[in-house]
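User: Could you go from structure to sequence for me? I need the amino acid at each position, not a summary. Structure tokens:
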């Protein structure tokens, strides 16, 4: 079947995505914009507020809503990862939801592949949108690693960080037991499936509620829409990750006064032990909230509780 096609020549996934964009994102005051940085070498697709404040300087005062940047995990794109958060936060915050480079509508001609490169791209995008300070970044998984480097490299821009299942303290052996379960040699085989069986394997460990049946035509559709494009570059992103690599220097300390960690108690991809290590690294001012009956995607599995936890944190300093 061709790209984005499934049963009867229609892509259920593409139809669902179109509905989400129309009913969720646009209905809550966001529009999709292609932002060019690096003299046009990098293009980032981002959902942005319809109206920008004059001067582009955000503050916690009454006149302007604070800015919140949502960074997605290694699966799919920003639209899919944060669908359940849009309605809860766009009324009180200026929400930005980009696709990281080589996901969704974002790509680059540059050769860098590290999380720090992604961090630079996100900051350049914000500056191009005239957002210069007091940004809270909410990063899930891989997006949380990008958020960590944004916070370290641009402390005046990034005010607070929320880490969702972000394994900053992974080691080269952290995921060996999980990979051995499926006889995989590299994490890319799990996170970037090429077959219906591989997609079912990923689904079986990604969420608390197990996916018992996933029709082959639906698997083909999902693989076409979310995994096949830029597959080579995504494998490069995983191979060149600083997080979890052997021989890398210790993680730097962040200077932000407040951070939050949210973790699924049943996360099989990044174990809760990694959340505890991250909390220890960030210090006593960082709270770790563990969500029961959630796996690697608590913002999707239990959006109501996740949104309440995140809202309380965001409002605690506004």
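Assistant: Here is the amino acid at each position, in order:
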């Amino acid at each position: 079947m061709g790209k984005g096609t499934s049963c009867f020549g229609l892509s259920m996934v593409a139809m669902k995505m179109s509905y989400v964009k129309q009913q969720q994102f646009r209905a809550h005051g966001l529009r999709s914009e292609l932002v060019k940085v690096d003299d046009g070498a990098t293009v980032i697709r981002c959902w942005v507020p319809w109206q920008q404040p004059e001067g582009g300087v955000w503050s916690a005062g009454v006149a302007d809503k604070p800015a919140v940047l949502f960074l997605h995990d290694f699966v799919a794109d920003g639209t899919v990862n944060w669908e359940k958060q849009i309605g809860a936060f766009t009324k009180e915050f200026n929400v930005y939801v980009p696709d990281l480079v080589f996901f969704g509508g974002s790509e680059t001609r540059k050769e860098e592949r590290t999380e720090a490169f992604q961090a630079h791209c996100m900051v350049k995008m914000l500056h191009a949108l005239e957002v210069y300070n007091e940004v809270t970044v909410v990063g899930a998984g891989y997006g949380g690693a990008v958020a960590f480097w944004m916070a370290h490299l641009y402390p005046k821009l990034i005010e607070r960080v929320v880490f969702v299942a972000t394994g900053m303290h992974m080691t080269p052996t952290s995921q060996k037991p999980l990979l051995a379960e499926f006889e995989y040699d590299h994490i890319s085989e799990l996170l970037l499936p090429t077959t219906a069986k591989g997609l079912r394997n990923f689904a079986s460990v990604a969420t608390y509620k197990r996916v018992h049946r996933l029709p082959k035509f639906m698997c083909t559709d999902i693989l076409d829409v979310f995994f096949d494009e830029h597959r080579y570059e995504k494998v490069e992103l995983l191979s060149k990750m600083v997080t979890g690599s052997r021989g890398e220097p210790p993680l730097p300390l962040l200077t932000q006064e407040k951070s939050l960690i949210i973790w699924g108690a049943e996360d099989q991809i990044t174990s809760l032990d990694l959340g505890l290590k991250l909390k220890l690294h960030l210090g006593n001012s960082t709270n770790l909230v563990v969500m029961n009956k959630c796996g690697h995607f608590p913002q999707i599995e239990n959006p109501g509780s996740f949104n309440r936890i995140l809202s309380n944190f965001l409002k605690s300093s506004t």
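One structural detail worth keeping in mind: The domain at 21-315 is CATH 3.40.50.1820 (Rossmann fold).
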